[in-house]
Design a protein that fits this description.
There is one protein chain. With 118 residues, the protein is α+β, with helices and mostly antiparallel strands. The protein has one domain. Helix content is 15%, strand content 29%. It contains 2 helices and 5 strands, in the order E-H-E-E-E-E-H. It has helices at 23-32, 91-98; strands at residues 9-16, 43-47, 53-60, 63-70, 86-90. The chain has a 5-stranded mixed sheet with strand order 4-3-2-1-5.
């Protein structure tokens, strides 16, 4: 199984992407819309309109690597349309997303406050 380490920097592209795009098209999105270098030490993650396909792009020493995952039944939990082109997460959060968890609406238990009764 190929999964990123928890320490890796990950950029999730907020828009939807035509999954026919390959390395050249995705790296152009990174440069033009995210204003980042596609050769940076980071993963760039893209999702299609139906949210059943994800592509990861990264640079590894002497060339690009493109990783593709297609779900057979379910959908990925993905970004809602926002003003930002991308959000930055870590490798652990990406693994949770790939496993089907909603990392965007994850809320901790409510904090309880107790007062002393006299």
């Amino acid at each position: 199984m190929l999964r990123p380490s928890a320490a890796v920097q990950v950029y999730l592209y907020a828009g939807t992407v035509d999954m026919r795009k390959s390395i050249n098209g995705l790296s152009a999105l990174v440069e033009q819309e995210l204003e980042l270098s596609p050769m940076a030490n980071a993963l760039f993650v893209f999702c299609n309109r139906d949210r059943d396909k994800i592509k990861l792009l990264y640079w590894e020493r002497n060339g690009f690597v493109l990783w593709y995952k297609r779900l057979e039944k379910q959908r990925f939990k993905w970004l809602k349309p926002t003003d930002s082109a991308a959000i930055c997460i870590d490798g652990h959060q990406l693994n949770l997303l790939l496993d089907g968890l909603d990392i965007f609406n994850n809320k901790p238990h409510e904090t309880l406050f107790y007062t002393a009764m006299n």
